[in-house]
Amino acid sequence: MIEALPAGLVDAVRERLARTPGDLTPHRVAEALRDTGRPVGDATVLAVHELLRRDVVGAGPLEPLLALPGVTDVVVNGSGEVYLDRGAGLERSTVSFPDEASVRRLAQRLASLGGRRLDDASPFVDLRLADGTRFHAVLAPIARPGTAISLRVPRRGGFTLDELVAARTLTAPVARLLERVLAARLPFLVSGGTGTGKTTLLAALLSRLPPGERIVVVEDASELRPDHPHVVGLEARPPNAEGAGAVDLRTLVRQALRMRPDRLVLGEVRGGEVVELLAALNTGHEGGCGTLHANSAVDVPARVEALALAAGLGREAAHSQLASAVDVVVHLARGPDGSRRVAQVAVPGRDAAGLVTMDVALEVGPTLSLHEGPAIDRLLSRLDQGRA
Q1: In the chain, how many domains are there?
Q2: Residue 18 sits in the same domain as residue 85
Q3: How far apart are the first and last CA of the chain?
Q4: Reported pTM
Q5: Burial of 256 (0-12, 13-18, 19+ CB in 10 A)
Q6: Angle, vertex CA 184, rays to CA 180 and CA 187, nearest 5
Q7: Which residues partner with 362 through β-bridges?
Q8: CA–CA separation, 24 and 267 (whole Å)
Q9: pLDDT tens for residues 170-206?
Q10: How big is the CA angle at 221 (ends 109 and 58), to the nearest 5 degrees?
Q11: Are residues 139 and 74 located together in one domain of the fold?
């Protein structure tokens, strides 16, 4: 436990250390303390050294939270509120920052580790840190009540499908059904809201593919890490400080098509790249897949239509492409207690106007009870026919 220190002491030491370059050592901290005219006891030196060390190493005061078993997310709402998620929803931690300036410094340092700029001219950033952690930050005053930091922690080793069954994310019958989707090489989407486990489920499914298949993964920020011997990842790149050098997802999808993929995977469909994905799944790249934000499986056509329209693809063309590109939608939901589960499995159909609808084949209740939907026979027929 770090002892309470007089107000302004750490800032005064930091200012003096900044005047002369050198490593951060207890000896230099003691000298800086003497310069301030404060008493230099061993406890004070070590307390100031530890606080300054947190400023320049790792995620600072958030580091102990990130190291806790089972933590998936750590979020900071200004200096006084730090929350973590261990799989049961957000819970407030005992960690806090001394002031807004310290939160801002941490955000800027983490951004610089990812080679990005974060300041008043560029007040938000989204990137992947070297250890795979997804980092997002928005500076105050755009963010209230202060600088907001979000860290998403990748699970070391990922989950297997059996582990997801044990965690009650899905039942064994649903797991076998999804394995049949893979074996039949049906193109599919995993839909759901933020934090429902879309990437986790998709990685577990891809890990079950035969080792001889080549998986090419396209992502905005690299998060999808299936346990498979032949995975090639392509990651988008934002523009540099001069506004040049950007590589977007649409470009990467086109590149991936030239890389002889057995499975083309788009980590998250959230923009114009949906046009390239639909086109790719309609040109013989069977078994492709991706994740998509949607409120339910039934809402997927509307979501795809909106993204496609923004990219310049007309409504009729978007629905026509979707109908022939995707055979299955697997939807995940998150309960009030934070639990995640596969809630629906749906297949595409057409309404009277010729637009795509998603018809539920399987519904999974909050207690994991299974209910067959009106499209169950169509789903089983697709599985039997396959695309191989």
Answers
A1: 3
A2: no
A3: 61
A4: 0.74
A5: buried
A6: 100
A7: 345, 372
A8: 40
A9: 999 999 999 999 999 999 999 999 888 899 999 999 9
A10: 30
A11: yes
